[in-house]
Write a structure and sequence with these properties.
Helices cover 29% and strands 33% of the residues. It folds into four domains: 85 residues, conserved putative lor/sdh protein from methanococcus maripaludis s2 fold (Beta Barrel), CATH 2.40.420; 91 residues, Efflux pump adaptor protein, beta barrel domain (Elongation Factor Tu (Ef-tu), domain 3, Beta Barrel), CATH 2.40.30; 71 residues, RNA polymerase II/Efflux pump adaptor protein, barrel-sandwich hybrid domain (OB fold (Dihydrolipoamide Acetyltransferase, E2P), Beta Barrel); 88 residues. Helix 3 runs antiparallel to helix 4. It starts with 13 loop residues before the first helix and ends with a strand. The chain is built from four helices and 25 strands. By secondary structure, the chain is of the alpha+beta class. Strands 3-19-23-22-21-20 form a six-stranded antiparallel beta sheet, with no helix packed on it. The protein is elongated, with a radius of gyration of 46 Å.
Length: 403
Amino acid sequence: MSDGPDLSALRIDERARRDSKRPGWRALAAGLGALGLVSAGLVFLLREKAPEVQVTTVRADRGGRPALLNASGYVTPRQRATIAAKITARVNEIFVDEGMQVEPGQVLARLDDSDARARLASASAEREATAAALGELRVNLENAERELRRVDALWDQRLVAEQARDQARMAVDGLRARLGLAREQVTAADARVKVAQQDLDNCTVRAPFGGIVVSKDAQRGEMVSPVSAGGGFTRTGIATIVDMGSLEIEVDVNESYIARVKAGQPVTAVLDAYPDWQVPAKVRTVIPTADRQKATVKVRATFDRLDPRILPDMGVKVTFLGDEPSAPAAAGRVLVPRTALQEKDGAAAVFVHREGRVERRAVRLGQARGHEHEVIAGLADGDAVVTTGVNELRDGQPVRVKR
């Protein structure tokens, strides 16, 4: 008989054998829960991946004047001035700030006038002293003339020598000469008083015309001067005023196309700040000179009606229009924003939004009109096109519309 271990006692219970053949309910529940979490996570990720876009409804081209030329420029005022002082002095008070409306002659600032007042007082005192001397000379002249009359009477009676008569006459002539000199000195003193008064008036800076203050260039306590001096410690201006009623458009037109532009020609202006707002205007003048470096000619246009939204130095795109209205556009022609176009290899397309997805649609382009472009095939009036991020979209991609 072998001395090895007895393996007959090693048996598997029949109940344990049956339980091991079917899965546990706890494991099954855990698996289903994990599957639900994964599905929810996938839905969440797919929703997060859907980009947010802006959508606009395209409109049909109803016709109008034909566009002859497009150009870009800026809003500029005809009347704009940086107000400076006529003297070098320290700013004692300043009464304006950016955005303030000022009237012609309104006080903008007061400069230190202590020196000017002292000069005015000195000139006035000198004038008074000269005037006092003038009075004394008048009295002396009247006395000398009476003495001359007495001497003449005695001379007629041959009671005085001729020398006494000549001396009396010479005294009168001398006093008359001194009186004339004194009068001229008083006139000169009056002129010096006026100069001193003008220096004092120059310490008060006034607005030469009405408008809006767009820049406050000096502060209380700073030195101002009509010329640049003292490095960065002396200001050359106090405030910049713009006459908002003189705003107009200034654009550079390529000299090759300047023959299409003439005074009085209607134009449509679109401000970069308000791309959906078309402002009617007309050409005021074509500046009769060209820029040889840029090969352009400067053109100025005036707005038909000014608006508070129009501000100096705003960027603007101008479309020069023809004289004769064109016929209404044919069916299928619509206008879309330039930002909605996706152009690759000379072909253009747009993305049309439908039921939460975008559809890429090839289009055929017509004329450019400011911030918009004419589409002559591929779209219909009322289609909703995407205007943002078109270069990152793909056909059929789900998107979220920005509200």
